[in-house]
Amino acid sequence: MHLRTWLAGAVSLVAAAATATVLTAPPASAATGGTGTGYLHTSGSKIVDSTGATVRLTGINWFGMETDNKTFHGLWSSNPWKGQLDTMASLGYNTLRVPFSDDALKAGATASGVNDFVNPDLVGLSPLQILDKVVAYAGTKGMRIILDRHRPTSAGQTALWYTTAVPESTWISDWKMLAQHYAGNSTVIGADLHNEPHAEGTNPAATGACWGCGDTARDWRLAAERAGNAILAVQPNWLIFVEGVSCPSGGLSNVWDNDTSNDEDCGWWGGNLSKAGDFPVRLDVANRLVYSPHEYATSVYHQAWFDDPAYPANMPAIWDHYWGYLYKQNIAPIMMGEFGTTLASNVDKVWLQELMKYTGTGVNGMSFTYWSWNPNSGDTGGIANDDWTTVNQAKQAILQPYLIAPVAGGGTTGPSPSTSSSGPAPTGGCKVTYTQDNAWQGGFQGQVKVQNTGGAAINPWQVTWTWPSGVTLVNGWNATVTQSGTTVTAAAPSHATTLAAGASVTVGFTANGTASTPATVKLAGVACS
Q1: What integer pLDDT is reported at residue 11 of this predicted model?
Q2: What sequence ranges are listed for the domain CBM2 (predicted)?
Q3: Which of 228, 232, 404, 471 has a Cα-to-Cα distance from 314 of 20 to 30 A?
Q4: Alpha helices in 393-448 (DSSP H)
């Protein structure tokens, strides 16, 4: 979805039994936090890492690369791009879904809307080079990246995966290029092949994307197989994310024909996987398929099911019908690629609460990437507020219990450093690493990484340091950062108050004045080495 009027299909869902229950996952093997180690694959309805541990992707969409800007929106704000990723990670979003268009991959493509003062390290970079920097930094935080081919061009979404200007051959060749480009980098875990294929035209003269109709020019299931297998031929480690359609026939019902016998139920664009059980996507590499439906609230379109007297008790049966059955029957994992709301109405608040319950809690729940980080999504708004820095706490509070925060390093780029053989660290103590990311006339940007080297957790944690006179804080992230005189205090955020023994926290900031290394860094009052 992106900044457009929603065109939902006519809905005539014959709901399953209203007694459908909240979804629970099959029993899982021992699972870890974060996003696991190495590349991911599937096992029944689970996503697992290279060791077989269950992984739940709890992510967010950061759009813009599919628009005329050809890069992430919000790079025009006063919050540096690393600061925005730091906030996402600190809130618990362990995966980033990145929409793009084929326009952004063309030779000579240029990124626009970048604040050179705030993001001097992005000056002159191509859209792909900016994406490379985001991938690299996200990887250091233990986050994963899903690439989403959102549109053939920046002009807008399309019902089919190709247009006259961007044929299927270009779609596939661009995917193969990306698969090769990121080969060996397990931060990038897979391809969401095409965003929201949907119906177009009226039956029986349908022209949109169908599922299982057998027409190679319109059957999205067959196209997903062609693209997925082409990608896996050059990058067999990637997951292939396949969205649904809106109407399985690929056409909207003709309400003027007075014939309701063939009228079908239609769901959200990309959200209808009701035929995937009968017509599954067949990939040449086993255990790589993840189905990725989209699901929205009334702020996007007022579907008939929101008016059911039984609402919201009717919703689990609807979700079961369109895509939940794939998970419940252990056919394949579900990763909700988009779902969101302005949260302006109580109907939507209830919808979001019930949808999250349906996905299940803990590592065994269904994966998802919320739409969106961006506050400028026209019909949902974002997790970020309009300043691209502060957070919409009402939305975050509903999502928070279901988020599994990334673990820095995360095992995605190699094994963790071995533990010193000199014996356990004494209780109390810390180690500090300072990195200056940028500097410009009159200001600079940096990050203070502090590791708890003591033998016990600290709750709540607090980091302090001093700066020379004349250096003043502009903003900070990953903590509540304030300044009094020459002393800066970074207090633990309410959602992450504990710093475990051996764990680290990274506090980012921008400041005015001469670039200066923080001095006398302390964790909970204890000086760091």
Answers
A1: 38
A2: 423-529
A3: 404
A4: 393-399
Rounded CA-CA distance 204/249 in Å is 9
Residues 317 and 15 sit within 8 Å (Cβ to Cβ):
yes
Q: How far apart are CA 428 and CA 276, in angstroms?
A: 55
CB 42 within 8 A of CB 239: yes
Cβ neighbors of 363 (< 8 A, separation 6 or more) are 28, 31, 32, 33, 54, 55, 56, 404
pLDDT of residue 409: 61
Sequence-ordered alpha helix ranges (H) in 149-214: 168-181
How high is the pLDDT of residue 30? 31
How many whole angstroms separate alpha carbon 296 and alpha carbon 252? 19
410 phi-psi bin (left φ>0, alpha ψ -120 to 50, beta other): left
Q: Amino acid identity, residue 331? A: I
Assess contact for 268 and 302: CB atoms under 8 A: no
Locus of tokens 């919320």? 370
397-407, pLDDT tens digit by residue?
999 999 999 99
Torsion of CA 393, 395, 397, 400, to 10 degrees: -120
Residues 161 and 150 sit within 8 Å (Cβ to Cβ): no
Residue 368: strand, helix, or coil: strand
- In the block, tokens 């803990």 appear at 362
Neighbours of 102 (CB within 10 A): 22
Single-letter residue type at 45: S
**C-alpha dist (Å) from residue 358 to 125, 138, 366:** 42, 28, 9
What distance in Å separates the CA atoms of residue 137 and residue 306, rounded to the nearest whole number?
41
Please name the helix (run of DSSP H) or strand (run of DSSP E) that holds residue 2, with its range, or none. Answer: none
- Angstrom CA distances, 377 to 72, 77, 88, 386, 524, stand at 13, 16, 17, 11, 40
Residue position matching structure tokens 């999250």? 356
375-428 pLDDT, tens per residue? Answer: 999 999 999 999 999 999 999 999 999 999 999 864 443 322 222 222 333 346
User: Do 461 and 495 contact (CB within 8 A), yes or no?
Assistant: no
Sign of the Cα pseudo-torsion (382, 385, 388, 389, in order): negative
Please list, residue by residue across 320-343, b when 16 or more beta carbons sit within 10 angstroms of its beta carbon and e when fewer do: bbbbbbbbbeebbbbbbbbbbbbb
3-class state of residue 489 by DSSP: strand
**Could you tell me where the DSSP H helices lie in 278-340?**
315-319, 325-328
Run of H or E including 189: strand 188-192
The answer to whether the beta carbons of residues 157 and 195 sit under 8 Å apart is yes
Q: Are 319 and 328 in contact (CB under 8 A)?
A: no
User: What is residue 459's predicted lDDT score, i.e. its pLDDT?
Assistant: 84
Residues 6+ apart with CB under 8 A from 451: 430, 431, 432, 433, 502, 503, 504
Catalytic positions, written as ranges = 196, 338
